[in-house]
Amino acid sequence: MSKKVDVVIGGKVFTLVSSEEEAHLQRIARYIDAKMAEMADGEQGMPLDDRVSSLLLALNISDDYYKASDRLARLDVEQEKYITELGLLQQENSLLTEQFRALQGEYTRLQKEHDQFIEAFDSAKPQERNVVQLPRPDQRKVGGFR
């Protein structure tokens, strides 16, 4: 639905008819007004006729547009690189998660084996243990003398 919006550009009020939001139209008007002010600052006492002024304004706005368009294209390329890198990192994460789960399973298996060994060792008679009794540190010979 079209609506009328008053904007100020170059000190003059213009009525625009558009389906765009008023805030958007006001933003555009402020941008054009600022560009016109930049041009007026650059004239240095030599006023330009309306045609030259309009041409320079169009050139300035086109320059801004193409710079923004080029920046957007660079950002798109950069975003694609990040998306690719993210995909690779997600694959690596999946692989590492699988490896981690396998290691957890191995750890659980070894822990059970260890517990069974300790249980079997504790339940065995001392003579069946085949354990060599080492002397306590305070009973060891030092330098062959004791």
Description of the structure:
There is one protein chain. The chain is built from two helices and two strands. The chain has about 150 residues and is mainly α. The chain is rod-shaped, with a radius of gyration of 41 Å. Strands 1-2 form a two-stranded antiparallel sheet. Helix 1 (about 20-45) crosses helix 2 (about 50-125). The termini are far apart.
| Uncertain residue ranges | none
Coarse structural class: mainly alpha
Number of helices: 2
Gyration radius (Cα, Å) is 41 Å
Q: State the distance separating the first and last CA atoms.
A: 107 Å
| Range of strand content | 5-15%
* Total number of beta strands: 2
Query: What order do the strands of the largest sheet run in, or round the barrel if closed?
Result: 1-2
Mean pLDDT: 87
In sequence order, what are the helices and strands, one letter per element? EEHH
Biggest sheet details: 2 strands, antiparallel
Question: What's the helical proportion of residues?
Answer: 55-70%
Global outline: rod-shaped
